[in-house]
Amino acid sequence: MLSFPEGVFSAKKYYADLGFDTLPLSAGSKICHVEKWQIISPNEAWLHAPSDSNIGIRCGGKRHFAVIDCDEKNKVGTFENIKNYLTGLGYDDKKFPVIQTASGIGRQIYCTLTDSIPGDYHNLSPQYGCGEFRFGEGAYVVAPPSIVKNTGVYKLLQGDISYLPEIELSAISYILKVSTSGDRYEDSKRILKYPKLTRKQNYMLNGIGVDKYPSRSEFEFALLVSLVNTGWDWNGIFYLFNNNKCGGKYSELNSKNWKQAYHYLRLSYENACQWAENTSEGRQRAINAEAWALSRSWSGRTGCYDRDVFLAQVNIAYETGKVIYHADCRTLAEFANVNYSTASRANRRLIQAGYLQLEQAAIANCAAKYSLGDIATLPQSPNVRECCITSKDHDVFARRGLGKSSKFIWNALEDGPKTVEELLLLTGRVKKTVQKWLTVMSGLEDGVSEKPMVYESEGKWYRNQDISLERISEFLEVNGLMDKRKKRHQEERVIHNSAFMRNRRM
Predict the structure, then answer these.
(1) 506 residues of the chain, pLDDT tens digit each
(2) Which of 313, 321, 314, 304 minimizes the C-alpha distance to 367?
(3) Interatomic CA distance for residues 376 and 392, integer angstroms
(4) How far apart are CA 165 and CA 68, in angstroms?
(5) Which of 12, 21, 22, 459 has the fewest Cβ atoms within 10 Å of its own Cβ atom?
(6) Cα separations (Å) of 195 from 114, 118, 292?
C-alpha cells in the first residue's frame, strides 16, 4: 500500500487541499451520513460528522472528478480490460490512480472528465465487463482509508491522487453501455457528444452579463447560438436550461406555464440552429486561422508576441464575421495583454510574413482595415491543439510579471505533464529560456495550495491546477494591469477623438 494520511479526518484535509468535495459516510458503511449530499457544501456536510465516519468523494466539482468503477466480483477481468483500453489511448497504466475496494478484488480508477454533460453515471459495456463510470455530482465514491464492516478497507494501490489523468468522454464512449431507453437524459449516443462548457457559457448559464443585452430573450438566444455552435443538441440544452437560471426568461415562463416555456425554448433553439448554420466566410476564415496559429510553435524572440497579437486579430475577425475588418492597435493590445506599441510592431512583422494583410491604413479616427492571410498557403505543423476562438490572458503573464514565454510553458502543461524536450517542441522556445522559466515558476506559491505553479517529478514537469493566479499576480505586484491598460486606452481614445473634432472645426 502506498503512503496515505492515517485517519479519516487527516484524509479529509488531504482531499480538500487537492480540491475534492468530500462527504462523511456512516461508520463501517458506504452510505452517506447527511441528507441532500448532492448539493450540500463539504464544510456543512462535516459539521456534525461522528469521529468514526468513513469518507467519500463526490464526483464532478471544480476538479471534474470522475471514477471508473470495475466490478471484479460480478465479472472477473473487468479491470484488466479497462486498463488495456486506457493504455491503448496513450495513458500510462502504472501512473493513473488505482484504488482497491473493500472487497479486496474490486478496482477503481480516478480521473478527470474534460466534458460537461448531463447525468451522473453510465454503466460499462458488457463487452468490457461490469461496473460504472461515475462523473456527475449525483454520484460519489467511497475513498481511502474508509473501512467497510465485515468486508475490508479501501486502499490506494498505485498512482498519485494529486494528479488525475484527463479523459474525454468521446474517447471512452466505446467502453460505456449505450442506453435503449426513450428518456431524453438516457440517450447515451447523444450525451457522449457534448463538449466542455466554455467559461463564458458557464457565466451566461448563471445569468451573468444579461445587462449587456437589450432583453433577456436576446441574452438567452445568444447563449443558445453559442451552445449550438459548440456541439450541444436539444436534449443537452433543455437539461442545461432546466438546471441553471440563465437569463431568467425561460425560468420565469416555466414557473407559470411549463408548456408555454417548453415551446418558447424549443422555438428559440430551432431559430438558433438556423442562425448557426449560416457561418459567414469571415468567421470560417477566423476559425481556420486560429486552428493554424495554435497548431504551430512560434519561435524567435518575438514569436510569443506575434502569436498573441495574431490571435487578437483572429478574435476581432471572428466577432465581426467579416473577411475585411477594422482593428486598432489598442484593442489588439488589450486582447494580447501587451502595450499598443508592441502590438503595432507585431502587426508589421505579421504583415511582412504574409500572415496578415493590410487592406487600408488608418485614416483620422478610423482604425486600419485588415484581412487574415490565406491559411491554405501558410506553413503547417503537426502539433494540433484545440480550436476555441479565444485570446484569454492573465496579468501574471504580463511583461512586468512572468512574461509571455512562461505563458507558453503554462499553456503547454495544461493537458498533462511534459518533459523539457516536449516543451521545447510545443513552445518554440530555446532550452535556456524554458529551463529559466520552469525554475522561476517552480519557486512561486500562492500561500493556499501546497505546491508551486509547476513542479518536477520523474523527469516530467507538472502544472498545479489549483494554483491561484490572482494571488501570484498580487505577489508580483502586477494585479489589475489589464484593467489599468483598458482604462488608459479609453482615456486616450477620448483625447484623440476630441482633438480630431477640434481640427475638423478649424
Answers:
(1) 455 677 898 999 999 989 999 999 999 999 988 887 888 889 889 988 888 999 999 998 888 999 999 999 889 999 999 998 888 888 888 888 999 999 999 999 999 988 766 677 888 888 889 999 998 888 899 999 999 988 899 999 999 898 888 888 777 777 886 443 333 333 333 334 456 677 778 888 888 888 888 888 888 988 988 888 777 777 778 878 887 878 778 888 888 887 788 888 888 888 888 777 666 777 788 888 888 887 777 877 888 888 888 988 888 888 777 788 888 888 888 888 888 788 889 999 999 888 898 988 887 667 888 888 876 444 444 443 344 444 456 777 877 778 888 888 888 887 788 898 888 888 888 888 888 888 888 888 877 777 888 888 888 898 887 788 778 888 888 777 777 777 777 777 777 666 655 665 55
(2) 313
(3) 26
(4) 12
(5) 459
(6) 8, 11, 21
Q: Which CATH architecture has domain 8-175?
A: 2-Layer Sandwich (3.30)
CA distance 165 to 97: 8
| Grid cell 476538479 in the structure block, residue | 63
Cell output for 72? 471484479
CA angle 238, 243, 245 (to 5 degrees): 100
Contact (CB, 8 A) for 453 and 467: yes
- Compute the distance between CA of residue 318 and CA of residue 491 in angstroms, rounded to an integer: 26
Is domain 395-475 annotated with CATH 1.10.10.10? yes
| Joined grid coordinates for residue 14 | 488531504
The three cell numbers of residue 234 are 436539444
395-475: same fold as 281-377?
yes
Q: How is residue 96 annotated by DSSP?
A: S
User: Among 419, 353, 382, which residue's Cα sits nearest to residue 294?
Assistant: 382
Closest CA to 409 of 394, 400, 420: 420
Helix, strand, or coil (residue 370)? strand
Beta bridge mates, 142: 56
**Helix segments in 209-361, DSSP class H:** 216-229, 234-242, 249-256, 258-277, 281-294, 303-320, 329-336, 340-353
* Cβ 460 vs Cβ 417: under 8 Å: yes
**Reduced to 3 states, what is the DSSP secondary structure of residue 472?**
helix
Termini Cα distance of the chain: 84
**What is the C-alpha separation between 316 and 283, in angstroms, rounded?**
10
- Overall CATH class of domain 281-377: mainly alpha
Residues 129 and 45: beta-carbon distance below 8 Å: no
- Using alpha carbons only, give the angle 390, 394, 397 rounded to the nearest 5 degrees: 115
* R_g over Cα of the chain: 26
Whose CA is closest to 61, among 124, 15, 12? 15
Backbone angles phi and psi of 243, in degrees to 5: -120, 10
Query: Hey, where are the domains in the chain?
Result: 8-175, 199-277, 281-377, 395-475
